[in-house]
Design a protein that fits this description.
The structure holds two protein chains of two kinds. Chain A is built from no helices and eleven strands. By secondary structure, chain A is mainly beta. By secondary structure, chain B is mainly beta. Chain B is globular. The chains are: A mainly beta, B mainly beta.
Amino acid sequence: DAGVIQSPRHEVTEMGQEVTLRCKPISGHNSLFWYRQTMMRGLELLIYFNNNVPIDDSGMPEDRFSAKMPNASFSTLKIQPSEPRDSAVYFCASSLGQVGSSGEQFFGPGTRLTVL
Amino acid sequence: GESVGLHLPTLSVQEGDNSIINCAYSNSASDYFIWYKQESGKGPQFIIDIRSNMDKRQGQRVTVLLNKTVKHLSLQIAATQPGDSAVYFCAENSGGSNYKLTFGKGTLLTVNP
């Protein structure tokens, strides 16, 4: 199994530009999570999906952030317009997401975003 | 020790010593806990988990202890090796159909050769 796949691994962009981060969860996993990690705030959950449906987006910072999961094997996190304070490492994780199953989440390698 | 919402603590040990990393959790309804290890430049990686109906679980060189009375979780690493150097996070889940994990800020473990 290839694990959770994220792209790009690194992204450098200028303030005001649109940024799209991509994630492919582990096949068969029903839950997908987007996190942001910074030195100041640690690992923050932005949004999570179960069976492609957004369940909790309370962690999404503001309207500039949006996430979609059009099918079970793909999700995107979009920032438009991007700002320097969005610079962080963004992780995608997936889990089985079935009642009674282990709650273990498997993380991707992350996308390091730098907004100049 | 570490608590959700506090600054990142650090622990420095000598190679071969045992390490103990602590975590305080706040939600008494949490029934599932995980320890993750994050090496520099990588995503968090599962180490060991424990459910609230247990107070101890052992893995390879690692042991997790859960004290529900004081809402405390610890990770013990035996014979710590340089490869154990990383940031360690505890995470809790309140169970049911909620698959969300709440992560602590992490503890930086440095192993000196």
